[in-house]
Amino acid sequence: MGIIYSHCVVIKTEGAITTYQVNDQRVVEDGIKKSTLQAYFNEDECEAKCMCGLFEMRGIICRHILSIFAARDVQVLPEKYIMERWRKDIKRRYGLIRSSYDDLSGKPVATRYSGLIKLCYQVATNACENEDNYLDMTQKLKAMNDIYTKSKPHATVASTHASIDAETGSSKNVLSPRVVRGKGRPPSKRRQPTIEKLQTKNKKAGGKRQRENPQSRMEDVLNPTESVILHNTPEAVV
């Protein structure tokens, strides 16, 4: 199963916005399935939007937009369509967050990140009290971020994999989670029939008697029929 072809046709053009009708055919189990969708292309921003909504919902660029880019001779995919979650060289922020099981002594980046976060909290607490301080801090942070972004070395996939070090020899012991009762009605609160109650009572009485008199346990093993009859008599139940 797969796509046979996807062809786009211009319907109308209004300024920089061009409306396309995208016709495609796919091979399915029952045969060939044809579908028709509308898509829009903004020439000024080099941006396309398809009615299937695949990129908006899942962050995956659809074949309809790709066919429009091919028709418009777009050689380089716009930065908007390159999601960070699909990049192999992206650095995840949760890898810099400290947990009770991590030892940050071998992670200088995580240590610096933790120190900057504490400092930013202090500065933000003081700057948010005044509108002028807030605007000044925002402007300076944006300028600093632009400088650091330009000076940051471009990481490649190979260098990213090489910088990943496995931590071994940790002395932390990860314990199992605490055992708690599940939600819902307790299983021991069900209604028991009378015969089951009598059997449970006889088992408890028999276990107590065996602990007090080990000789009676031996007699029950040698004469099981007599023991059962004795336990089920009205006198024994009472």
UniProtKB/TrEMBL annotation:
<dbReference type="InterPro" id="IPR031052">
    <property type="entry name" value="FHY3/FAR1"/>
</dbReference>
<dbReference type="InterPro" id="IPR007527">
    <property type="entry name" value="Znf_SWIM"/>
</dbReference>
<keyword id="KW-0863">Zinc-finger</keyword>
<dbReference type="GO" id="GO:0005634">
    <property type="term" value="C:nucleus"/>
</dbReference>
<dbReference type="GO" id="GO:0008270">
    <property type="term" value="F:zinc ion binding"/>
</dbReference>
<keyword id="KW-0479">Metal-binding</keyword>
<dbReference type="Pfam" id="PF04434">
    <property type="entry name" value="SWIM"/>
</dbReference>
<comment type="function">
    <text>Putative transcription activator involved in regulating light control of development.</text>
</comment>
<feature type="domain" description="SWIM-type">
    <location>
        <begin position="35"/>
        <end position="73"/>
    </location>
</feature>
<dbReference type="GO" id="GO:0006355">
    <property type="term" value="P:regulation of DNA-templated transcription"/>
</dbReference>
<protein>
    <recommendedName>
        <fullName>Protein FAR1-RELATED SEQUENCE</fullName>
    </recommendedName>
</protein>
<keyword id="KW-0862">Zinc</keyword>
<comment type="similarity">
    <text>Belongs to the FHY3/FAR1 family.</text>
</comment>
<feature type="compositionally biased region" description="Basic and acidic residues">
    <location>
        <begin position="209"/>
        <end position="220"/>
    </location>
</feature>
<feature type="compositionally biased region" description="Polar residues">
    <location>
        <begin position="159"/>
        <end position="174"/>
    </location>
</feature>
<feature type="compositionally biased region" description="Basic residues">
    <location>
        <begin position="180"/>
        <end position="192"/>
    </location>
</feature>
<dbReference type="InterPro" id="IPR006564">
    <property type="entry name" value="Znf_PMZ"/>
</dbReference>
<feature type="region of interest" description="Disordered">
    <location>
        <begin position="159"/>
        <end position="238"/>
    </location>
</feature>
<keyword id="KW-0539">Nucleus</keyword>
